[in-house]
Amino acid sequence: MKQKEINKSWRQIHSPFLFDIARHLEGGGKYVEVGVNSEIIEQVAKIEHLRQTLSRSSDYIEVEDFGAGSKVFKNNLRPIKKIVSIVLQQKNVAFSLMRLLLFWKSKRSSCRILEMGTSLGLTTAYLAASGWEVETWEGCRNTSSYARRNWKILGCEESIKCKTGKFETLLNQDKGGWDVVFLDGHHDGLATLEYIEILKTMLNKGGAILIDDIDWSEGMKAAWIELLEDAHWNVTMKWRGKGWLFNRVEDFEQHLKLRKSYIPLSKFNKMKRFTIVFAAVTMLMSSQVQAQISKSENNTKGKAESSVITSEDFKIYGEMTAFELNGKSVVKISFDPILNRIGADKKAISTAYEISNVAYASLGQALNVLSSNGWYVDAVWTTLERSGTVQHFLISKKVSKLSPASPWLDKNTHNKNGGKENGSRK
After folding, report:
1. Same structural domain, 184 and 53
2. Per the domain annotation, does 303 fall within a domain?
3. Which of 25, 28, 70, 335 has the most CB atoms lying inside 10 A of its own CB?
4. 108-114, Cβ contacts within 8 angstroms, sequence gap of 24 or more
5. Each residue of 354-364: pLDDT tens digit?
6. What is the pLDDT at residue 325?
7. What is the CATH number of the domain that holds 140?
8. End-to-end CA distance of the chain, in Å?
9. Looking at the predicted structure, is the pLDDT value of residue 41 above 70?
10. Domain for residue 234, yes or no?
11. Would you say residue 420 lies in a domain?
12. How many independent structural domains does the chain possess?
């Protein structure tokens, strides 16, 4: 009996082989080793523009379904726009696959991929954009013709070889030599196991099989469990409802479930921009308030110039960190115990420690609580920790007075020899 699948983020994977795959599937742009040139960017833009066009299409297509049928469509006459929204791989998935192929292209001499299940051909276009040799199989002739029409619009029809027919027939006619097979059709558990058994002998050394919709039905779930029991596939990885199969004689047996990136790059960039803008606005407001107070004092009749220090000249500081853990926001606020010694406003100090003991549901909630208690963000920066991306905030609050503090002269401070310092230098 094989070990259970282990649920991990791509950052937690120790196997160099699986780590490289996972970071190219789920990591942000700065964590990958491939560059997306202007030609690929232009092609992706064309594909997504076509996706939007098809999502508004009034066309229908009569589908000859040789697979496991559909849970959505009641008959074989199906609207194109519904196929786009339900059947096609989403942009982020197709782009991730393309990016992984770009990475593998730099590592291997043979780059041949077989897609079993063409549909409207948009995912096929992504695969072709990677520069791999692409062949795709589709059971329905009408669907196959519609896909060819789309490739002609995208200008990639010359780089895609398409065959029409039942998978079983095409497999018996094929000579193999594939580096990757993407099985994205006929979502039937028993049929999937039969196809995989044949494909075992058709992969090049180090090749991989990616099976779509392994949770689509009880039959597909059972098929995936059976594949985990197959000693041939000693390395597997579940990813976004799909299953990767590898035969790695040089690696020990391991079965992973790859978690989605808990903080997508787009979301992180938006959050980072928000906090930086928030910090800039609060600092600007603080400066304006201080300028107004100074102006008011200077315009007061009969008030002589003096070196009286206003309340705006003193600040106490704290720290806040924010990150995501298992899909949930974690916000921590902390203050150094020295505040108790230097802060004359004991009520403000007490409130500060109360704030640090609250569990916040979001970054916005923490910022609002801080703001309502007179705390402002002075600086924001980001670090990449083992647990993921962490944002750091330097927060401050204005107080009326501070008492001098010299931690190195604290009678309770211990020296290196375990004794207590007496406050004098020797």
Report:
1. yes
2. no
3. 25
4. 108/179, 108/206, 110/177, 110/179, 110/204, 111/179, 112/177, 112/178, 112/179, 112/180, 112/204, 113/178, 113/179, 113/180, 113/181, 113/182, 114/178, 114/180, 114/181, 114/182
5. 888 888 888 88
6. 75
7. 3.40.50.150
8. 69
9. yes
10. yes
11. no
12. 2
